[in-house]
Write a structure and sequence with these properties.
alpha/beta, single chain, 89 residues, disordered C terminus, 3 helices, Transcription Regulator spoIIAA, four-stranded mixed β-sheet
Length: 89
């Protein structure tokens, strides 16, 4: 189960906690699209415990679209970098 908490300011931050599954990614997509065009958006992943494969693809796509992945656990970062062919040196 995923918990999503939104906070605003100069940047919209969605703080996520728990597991992110494909259904959750669909809800996050909906919430992200409701924000004003050009608004900076950040997903705080500090309390995420697990991400399924499809949700991982969504995270990678959102990051490529300019959404910041804050407090991204190293194992999630590694999976994202591996999922789109990027490698850090």
């Amino acid at each position: 189960m995923l918990r999503i908490q939104r906070s605003g300011g100069p940047e919209v931050v969605f703080s996520l906690s728990g597991r992110i599954e494909i259904e959750d990614a669909a809800e996050l997509e909906r919430l992200i699209r409701l924000e004003t065009a050009g608004q900076e958006i950040s997903l705080d992943l500090g309390d995420v415990t697990l991400v399924d494969r499809e949700a991982l693809r969504s995270l990678a796509r959102w990051e490529a679209e300019g959404i910041k992945l804050a407090n991204c656990p190293p194992y999630i970062r590694e999976w994202i970098e591996g999922s789109d062919g990027r490698r850090t040196g």
